[in-house]
Write a structure and sequence with these properties.
Blueprint: E1 2-13, E2 17-22, E3 25-32, H1 35-55, E4 76-84, H2 97-109, H3 114-125, H4 130-158, H5 163-206
Antiparallel strand pairs: 1-2, 1-4, 2-3
Helix pairs in contact: 2-3
C-alpha cells in the first residue's frame, strides 16, 4: 500500500456548500455541505477516479506539486491524500452474471468501483481491514458528530429553554391574558345590564307600571 496526494481546488461557502475539482483529473469532482463532508467525498471521488483509470489500463497522472498550483481568487488549494494499492495490474476473472450484478450493486452502495470492492473483499478475507474500512469508520464518526452537533443546535434554537420557546411562551401568555380581560369585560357589562334591568323592573312594579322590556337580557 502507498499514499498518493493530488491537489483539489475548493470553492463555495458555508451557506451554499462546497465543491472540489482536481486539476490533474478533470473528470474527478466532489461536493459537500461543509468542509468535513467535502473532504470525505473528495477522497472517495479520487479513489474511484484512480480505480477507474487502473481498470481501463490507463496510467495515473503525475500529481502536480501544491506550490505549482495557481488557485484563482476565492479558491482554496487543498492536498487530498488517499491510500492505494501498489501499481495495479490487470487480472482477468470469471464470475456468474447474477454475482457480478450483486457485486456492482454492493460497490455502488459503498461509493466504490468494482475492482476496489473486490480488492477490499480480498483484504477482509485475508484478515486486513484496509484503508477503505478505516476511512468509512472515520466518515461514520464524523457523520455522527455532525448529527449530534445539529441536534444540539436545533435544541438550542427551538428547545424548551431556547429564546424562541420563551418568546412563544410569552406570546401565549399575552394572548391568554388579552382573551381573559376581554371575557371579564363582557361578563362585567352583562352583569351591569342585568342589574340595571332588575332595578328598573323593581321600580316599575313599585309604581304600578309595566316592567320595561319583554324579558331580562340574556348573557
Amino acid at each position: 500500500m502507498s499514499i498518493v496526494l493530488f491537489v483539489a481546488l475548493v470553492s463555495g461557502s458555508a451557506s451554499s456548500g462546497y465543491r472540489a475539482r482536481f486539476p490533474d483529473l478533470p473528470d474527478c469532482e466532489a461536493e459537500g455541505r461543509d468542509l468535513g463532508e467535502l473532504l470525505v467525498n473528495a477522497r472517495a471521488a479520487l479513489t474511484r477516479g484512480l480505480d477507474a483509470m487502473a481498470g481501463a489500463g490507463e496510467a495515473w497522472p503525475t500529481p502536480t506539486p501544491l506550490e505549482e498550483i495557481a488557485a484563482p481568487p476565492g479558491v482554496l488549494a487543498i492536498p487530498i491524500d488517499v491510500s492505494v494499492d501498489d501499481p495495479p495490474i490487470r487480472v482477468n476473472i470469471s464470475l456468474g452474471e447474477r454475482l457480478v450484478q450483486r457485486l456492482d450493486a454492493a460497490a455502488e452502495a459503498r461509493g466504490m468501483t468494482r475492482s476496489g470492492f473486490i480488492a477490499q473483499a480480498v483484504r477482509v478475507s485475508l484478515g486486513e481491514r484496509g484503508p477503505a474500512a478505516g476511512e468509512f469508520d472515520a466518515a461514520n464518526r464524523r457523520l455522527q458528530e455532525e448529527l449530534s452537533a445539529l441536534g444540539r443546535k436545533i435544541t438550542e434554537s427551538i428547545g424548551p429553554e431556547s429564546p424562541f420557546s420563551r418568546r412563544m411562551a410569552d406570546l401565549d401568555d399575552k394572548v391568554y391574558e388579552g382573551v381573559r380581560r376581554a371575557a371579564d369585560s363582557v361578563s362585567a357589562a352583562m352583569s351591569r345590564r342585568r342589574e340595571a334591568y332588575r332595578a328598573a323592573t323593581a321600580q316599575a312594579e313599585a309604581g304600578g307600571e309595566t316592567a320595561p322590556g319583554a324579558a331580562e337580557p340574556h348573557p
